[in-house]
Design brief:
The radius of gyration is 73 Å and the shape is rod-shaped. It is built from seven helices and five strands; from the N terminus they run ααββαβββαααα. It is of the alpha+beta class. It folds into two domains: 189 residues, Beta-Lactamase; 112 residues. Helix 1 packs antiparallel against helix 5 and helix 5 runs parallel beside helix 6.
Length: 411
Amino acid sequence: MKNSIKSKLILVSALLLIIPMLVLGFFTYTKSQSSLDELGAIKLTNSVEMTIELIDALQSEVEKGTLTLEDAQERVKLSILGEMNDEGRRPINENIDLGEYGYLFIIGQDGTLIGHPNLEGTSIWNEVDSNGDYFAQDLVSQGNLGGGFTYYDWPLPHNENIIERKVTYSKVDPHWDWVVSSGAYMSDFNAPANDIRTTIIIVTSVTLLLGVAVIWLFATRITKPIQQVTERMLQLKQGDLRNTPLHIKTNDEIGKMATAMNDMQKGLQDMLTSITAASENLSGRSEELTQSANEVKSGSEQVAVTMQELASGAETQVNSASDLATLMESFVTKVQNSSEQGKNILTFTEETLQLTDKGTDLMKSSTQQMATIDQLVKDSVQKVQGLDKQSQEISKLVSVIKDIAEQTNLL
């Protein structure tokens, strides 16, 4: 969640909402406070001016002789405060709006309080506040300058143990030389601004809560399809193509991305189907090829056995031919011996013919026998020649068989 698009979107949107709201609230409060300060200053000024006008009117009555000076001055005190009780205290006039604890009072040029809720007749000329300021002297000084504001710390009128910051406008009455002062505590003076600040805080908080809720819903609506597409992409990465297509109703970039992802999944499914069919076809062909290879192997084994038998037969024939050639050589030797014997017989016969006529009949008989023997020898020679020719053919056949055997062994 820390690095998700949703958290980043919520954070950025919240900042875009919070920062303007805070800036707007700050400047609104500052402007309101400034305006209320001006309004409060106007109230203080107006109340002093109103009192000075009242003094001016009563002074006219005094000059006419219809009213004594003491009565006129008491009427001013009654007007801005109220009638003094037995304890020497005067109430605060609620008709003069200077805040909850604000009131008008009158101070003399010597610092004596001429009109005051609870310190009337007391001199505060040498009084200092918590900051060490002689505020009474400053009040008189500002009044003599034509009017001005003085800030100082002062106890609340009904609880002297509570010290609050106070602002007072003072101005000198030209008739009686009174320094008419109108003071309000800052807590009252800025009370409307504080109310506005509280209202701003409440409105800002509610707006932020509503804004964050709207941003959360908006971010969820945006990031949920993205999360679905991301999860589907991870499933595709793992080879899982069994899921149904995503149904995202938006037509924005996220919807287009989901559509493209669905198309990709469909393409992968089609490609996988084609690959499966091709694999099955290839598997079938492989089985056929394996069977053919086994048949070829079996045939090759049979050919090898046959060639071994042929080679064995050829070797046997070669051995037989060799034996036959040996026999033929022995037979030729015998024929040669026979021929030599025949020559010897012929020699012996000639000698016999020369030696005796009586041996003519025997010679004739011997001649006939020799003719027969010669015929036999010729027949034997022809047979030997035929046998030699057959031996040569057998040798050729043996060479051919050896070549076939060698080629078969090479295969």
